[in-house]
Amino acid sequence: MNHSQANNAPTSADSRPKSSRGEKIFKRVLFAIGLVSFVIMIFTFKVSREQLLTLLRRSWYIFPAVIAMWIPLYLMNAWAWRKMLQGQGRDEVSLLTMFRWTISGFALNSLTPMGLLGGEPYKIVELKRLVGTERATSSVILFSMMHIYTHFWFWLTSIAVYLLLCLVGNLTMSVPIAIVLAFGGAFSLGGVYLFRKGYKHGFIMKLLRGLGHVWGLRKWATRMQVRHHDALTTIDSQISQLHSQDRSVYNACFWIEYVGRLLMSCEGFLILLMLGVGNGSTLGGYLLLWLHSMLILAFTSLFANLLGFIPMQMGTREGGYALSAAQFGFTAGVGMVISVVCRLREVVWDAIGLLLMKKK
User: Fold this and answer.
1) What contacts 11, CB < 8 A, 6 or more positions away?
2) H-helix or E-strand containing 57?
């Protein structure tokens, strides 16, 4: 039996391989980093106790809805990741298990600088016990690629929405906004192009070759290529095969993630409804309010991702929400309320994610 067949053999709950000592230590280190970052974030939360209590009193009925709406969003993420895994062979992992790992992975990404430095290795360590290192690594990389890839499409969609609202006279165009839209469009199109190339041909080996030209990383990159050449080549092959051979899985994952991006706009929509702002109670008014929520999220996420080295993006999103809300006709205070409610939601889900890491 070859290696891939061994990985595809069914694994019962009682016969699952145990984590090695090194893996246990690695997960404990990730948990400790996440916990320390979480505590630092709590103590640097730039909202006074009185302001927080006032906000919670005003939004007590909407805050549970904001928390709950992320359950289907995380489920969609886990579903897309599971489909990636199924596209590579036999599936041995339940959606519920991958749902739990997804929440913990996003919590670690949120709490660690630059993101992706905690959540993705954690998911690989958890998954490789069941499907092997190569399938675990390639499925996690594929999902992360798709998650980022759809973000570029979300930004492009938001730019198109902004231009459409300008044409109908709802929004105005200025030189600074035109520059932001042009930069965002070029950045997103460049990202789409690079990711499509990566999907078609793989990118791990190319990335290592590129790092081989970076001072200080040359020896490490060369050593990685020599020691893990076969495994890395297999991962690249699995990445390209998904795009070229199983388009149904690729397309399904894309639409799951893209629709999830659009549904994230409902968070700002619910908060704006709670604040009583908008254009009346008509269907058109609700649609316009949702589109504005989508644009606020898009502009804020673009701003925050450019400064993604800050843990939990402390301060960057708050400023992004305030500036974005003001641009779309709301007061800066409305933007700050959105940012605080979203931050509180993130605190809750990050805490849940860390707790789920301790679940056996």
Assistant:
1) 17, 92, 130
2) helix 49-59
Angle in degrees, 0-180, between the axes of helices 229-244 and 204-211, rounded to the nearest 10:
130
Give the residue from 224, 244, 241, 221 showing the smallest Cα distance to 232: 224
For the record, the structure tokens of 258 come out as 């893209």
Share of the chain above pLDDT 90, in %: 22
Residue in 42, 43, 296, 253 with CA at minimum distance from that of residue 142: 253
pLDDT in tens, 164-222: 999 998 888 889 889 989 998 999 999 898 888 877 776 677 767 776 766 766 776 77
Note the pTM of the prediction, 2 decimals.
Answer: 0.79
- Pair of tokens at residue 245: 């051979």
pLDDT bin (cut points 50, 70, 90) of residue 264 is very high
Indicate the residue type of 346.
E
**Torsion angle of the four alpha carbons 310, 204, 357, 59, in this order, in degrees rounded to the nearest 10:** 40
Instruction: Tell me the C-alpha to C-alpha distance, in Å, between residue 333 and each of 21, 128, 221, 264, 342.
Output: 50, 46, 48, 21, 14
- Per-residue pLDDT of 278-292, as tens digits, reads 655 678 888 888 998
Residue 5: pLDDT band (50, 70, 90) is very low
DSSP 248-268: HHHHHHHHHHHHHHHHTHHHH
From CA 60, how far away is CA 99, in angstroms rounded? 27
Write the DSSP string, 105-118. HHHHHHHSTTSSSS
> Among all chains, which residue has been given the structure tokens 């499907």?
131
- Helix, strand, or coil here: 32? helix
Q: Which residue has the tokens 């076969």?
A: 230
Alpha-carbon span 158 to 185, nearest angstrom: 10
Report CA-CA distances (Å) from 108 to 47, 85, 149, 338. Answer: 23, 21, 20, 23
